[in-house]
Amino acid sequence: MKLELQGITKRFGSLVANDNIDLVVNPGQVHCLLGENGAGKSTLMNVLYGLYEPTDGRILVDGKPVTFRGPGDAMAAGIGMVHQHFMLIPVFTVAENVALGDEHTKAGGILDLDKTRARIREISDRYGFDVDPDALVEDLPVGVQQRVEIIKALVRKAEVLILDEPTAVLTPQETDELIQIIEELKAGGTAIVFISHKLREVKAVSDVITVIRRGAVVGTVDPSASTGELASMMVGRKVSLSLNKAPATPGETTFTVRNLTVPGAGGQNLVDNVSFDISRGEILAVAGVQGNGQTELTEAILGLHPHASGSVRLNGRELLGMKVKDIIREGVGFVPEDRKVDGLVGSFSIAENMILNWYNEPPFAKGLAMKPAVVLKNAREKVAEFDVRTQSAEAPVSTLSGGNQQKVVLARELSRPLNLFIASQPTRGVDVGSIEFLHKRIVAERDGGTPVMIVSTELDEISELADRIAVLHGGELMGVVPGDTSRDVLGLMMAGMTAEEALGQGPGQNPTPAGEGGTAAGERISGEHAAGEETR
Asked: Where is the composition biased (Basic and acidic residues) (predicted)?
């Protein structure tokens, strides 16, 4: 089935999310839609899937114009979509989830799942999915849950399959398995629209790459284009994709976590007996698939989980049990994973957001009164230092782009002497150019002698920044390994192996950690598929 989008425009009031977009997807082709978060990729796919009605333009299937009033119309036309956040009911079986919305009944109105089970087995055998129709979804690994979503689309005879940020919650090994599945689907004639902001994966899987920036197509290229060229198209200027940082020179160990445990509501620990250290002048990066205790770990350190137990000590002082404001005054800088919810007050000015932690203290206040001139002077200096793109430091912070909002958070947290700096998902939703800047600032903080802890689900970011890497799975620490440990080993640890087990199983690995004789490569998408000297 050939799919065409012609002149698709989607407006939300004065905001133009998609601007006159043309796109052609041919049978048996993987067409990647590449762009930064907020570029308009998902909006475009929601238009295609019938979730949004286009303001202008038209959709053609095999040369004939079609109108989709909802996802049911899109599915009837042969279009399926696997959303970034899976649309599955955990307590249902695979067969029940696949049948949902397309139920068949026996005589007497009894649900007939036999045909659904047979179809699941047929598709599973054909593509090597290895999915049990009677397994409960909540018992399945994330990678298998994604296969269930793909099966749902194929059962409905999808000839075009949209995959929206499909690797966001996968380990490197699961990503490799997904790429193999895509190859098999393509060989069977299925057209794939692969939406991503990850250059490595786009080059690994694509036949054609269309780059979107600020809602408009800026070019269509083939996967032989260099990562530098793709990054420049995404951002609109030349950017560096590698961080040339000097080796760490760790000093005194001033931050220690011992047996930290955060209980969950269901009786299972969200963080389970975790221990590690960070020395002055080094970056410890915490890796793991989202939802494995990273959020609770950082929040416990900051004092947001009153029932946490164990020990968290900074410069010999116990932080566990302190109030958040007192922990901040111990010299802890913190960048939360969701800047809009926890890091900024959108209606406040940039200047006011720069002093949220210190608004009532000198030099920004005297007694009960703030000193607006001092607050504004501070903001103007930080706007210049951190290259915050704005017309005025007095503008509401909500008017800034995501990357510039993140710069405001970092400017605030790095504008005072720190004894510990924690950044959770420091570049989430940030364009490539801003990532380059923010990474350099984080390394500069390390080089100034601060212990730094980074939490990220992006392995490229982990590899760029880390001097050592701690991997969490199910709230447990699988181990701490050197910063140049291979992606394969990290992926095995993210899936639940201890460091010792993973180092013994990674391709070309032996029990010696990478950096001391270990191998630092091997996974499918970091080899020939990630060609180009610019890659990390």
From this structure: 525-536
